[in-house]
Amino acid sequence: MTDPAFPAAPFRLAERIVLQATPLAVIRHDGIRLADLRDAFDRGYTAIGELFQTGELVPTGPALAIYYGDPMDEFDLELGFPVADAPAAPITRGDLVVRASQLPAGPAVAATHVGPYDGLGAAWGELVSAAEGEPNGISIESYVGDPGSAAPDELRTDLIMPVRG
Fold first, then answer.
1. Structural domain boundaries in the chain
2. Which CATH fold topology does 15-164 show?
3. Residue pLDDT, tens place only, 60-69
4. Own/partner pairs, 124-131, CB within 8 angstroms, 24+ separation
């Protein structure tokens, strides 16, 4: 895949990239908190995975989560996958709605965290400290490592922070 958001090799700390408006299939949660993430992730990725199994959607990259706002407070969340074609219309699965979205195109800084998910907070802190450019309130996590098959200390999560200018 040639999309700069989804490289084969890990990112260096505060590596500068330019995001493309990559099509996504996502489930959006407005006004969510960190305590709600496990349920949102489990249910959401399962619903989208069912659409992959039926062929309604075709994934082109790893699972991701896009945080809008301050993740330490109430924030909005899109979780999903890059896809070959975003859904033309919303797709309902139970009480969840899968809809089209896209990565926010433009400049960003990125880093890779390898290890358990409980280390993501510290990894984000390192990226923010090392980054040049003003964050625009969006944070993206790309879950390259599969938690179902990889040991926790081998999980790879790419962190992407879009910046102004």
1. 15-164
2. Multidrug-efflux Transporter 1 Regulator Bmrr; Chain A (3.20.80)
3. 999 999 999 9
4. 124/159, 126/13, 127/13, 127/14, 127/159, 127/161, 128/161, 130/13, 130/14, 131/14, 131/161, 131/163
Side chain identity, residue 14? A
Q: Is the pTM of this model over 0.85?
A: yes
Q: What are 130's two structure tokens?
A: 């090392």
Tokens in use for 161?
Answer: 């922070």
Q: Using an 8 Å Cβ cutoff, are 111 and 21 in contact?
A: no
The tens digit of pLDDT for each residue in 13-28 reads 999 999 999 999 999 9
Do residues 25 and 52 make contact, with C-beta atoms less than 8 angstroms apart? no
Biggest alpha carbon–alpha carbon distance for the chain: 43
